[in-house]
TrEMBL record:
Residue ranges annotated for the Exoribonuclease phosphorolytic domain, each copy included: 31-170, 197-260
Family (UniProt): Belongs to the RNase PH family.
Keyword Cell cycle among record annotations: no
GO molecular function annotation: mRNA 3'-UTR AU-rich region binding
A biological-process GO annotation: rRNA catabolic process
GO cellular component terms, A-Z: cytoplasmic exosome (RNase complex); nuclear exosome (RNase complex); nucleolus
Localization in the cell: Cytoplasm; Nucleus, Nucleolus
UniProt protein name: Exosome complex component RRP43
Keywords from the UniProt entry: Acetylation, Cytoplasm, Exosome, Nucleus, RNA-binding, rRNA processing
Family matches, as InterPro entries: ExoRNase_PH_dom1, ExoRNase_PH_dom2, ExoRNase_PH_dom2_sf, Exosome_comp_Rrp42_subfam, PNPase/RNase_PH_dom_sf, Ribosomal_Su5_D2-typ_SF, Rrp43
Main location: cytoplasm
Taxonomic superkingdom: Eukaryota
Short name of any one Pfam family annotated for the protein: RNase_PH_C
Length: 280
């Protein structure tokens, strides 16, 4: 299989591998790339964040920093805080992205993350309220892609979850006499994370063949993609399918089963890293 055919006829080149149930990078169709996660202060670049994580999925590298600030709740949701996710795809992460305001892909990814937070109930906004109508936490979750090689959504959800698990918020009370907030930086508490959503993405080749954790090249050649988000109870939190080939019920069920298995792998990885950085 020459390099020439990969450049001139990339789809035919891929099909020759897929017929043998493997991919040009040596993976099987249902195999994920090597996945690693670093959590917290090991990321010297964002020590200003209240929680941070770096996730690598093959060559795709994503960093997430969570910054917590205090604000008054909105009038129509007096007992809720805010979660503000933002995904950035800077020009340095891949040639396809340009400097300037967020492009379509970054905006779609930000909306996807917002939907995952809402649908999974990973953080309940009422838990971020300190005093109804007076004070609540705002969590700014900045997800920045440092190196893009496909499957941005899986890496982003993983980085977000890992960073949120790392957040420690200071104790805040409202002084009854002055009405002012008092922050105790010596007493910190972890965020209440109620669910642990994990995303699993697939590319669809020739309308029928599913491959897991696609690279950027595989995404470009695919006839569609689908991302399944599940929680630790195997509950379906979200199905994200931006156009492309339709999937049969059986194929979708296949994706969900694989996503539930992947969830266990990712959760085990996060738990292991958190255990290693938790003071004995």
């Amino acid at each position: 299989l020459s390099i020439c055919s990969r450049t001139v006829e990339p789809l035919e080149y891929y099909r020759r591998f897929l017929k043998e149930n493997c991919r040009p990078d040596g993976r099987e169709l249902g195999e994920f790339r090597t996945t690693t996660v670093n959590i917290g202060k090991c990321l010297c670049s964002i020590t200003t964040a209240d929680g941070s994580a770096l996730v690598k999925l093959g060559n795709t590298t994503v960093i997430c920093g969570v910054k917590a600030e205090l604000a008054a709740p909105a009038a129509d949701s007096a007992n809720k805080g805010y979660i503000v996710p933002n995904v950035e795809l800077p020009s340095l992460c891949a040639e396809r992205f340009r400097s300037g305001p967020p492009g379509e892909e970054a905006q779609a990814a930000s909306q996807f993350i917002a939907d995952v937070i809402e649908n999974s109930q990973m953080i309940v906004k009422e838990d971020l309220c300190i005093a109804s109508s007076k004070l609540a936490w705002v969590l700014y979750c900045d997800i920045i892609c440092l190196d893009y090689d496909g499957n941005l959504l899986d890496a982003s959800v993983f980085a977000l979850l890992a960073a949120l698990k790392n957040v420690q918020l200071p104790s805040v009370t409202i002084n009854e006499e002055t009405g002012l907030s008092e922050v105790n930086l010596k007493q910190k508490n972890p965020l209440i994370i109620r669910k642990h959503p994990v995303a699993t993405s697939f590319a669809v080749f020739d309308d029928t063949l599913l491959i897991v954790d696609p690279t950027a090249e595989e995404e470009d050649l695919a006839t569609g993609t689908v991302t399944i988000v599940t929680d630790e109870e195997g509950r379906l939190c979200s199905v994200h399918k931006p156009g492309g080939s339709p999937l049969t019920g059986a194929k979708l069920q296949d994706c969900i089963s694989r996503a539930i298995t992947r969830h266990k792998e990712v959760k085990k990885l996060i738990d292991k890293v958190i255990k290693s950085i938790t003071p004995k």
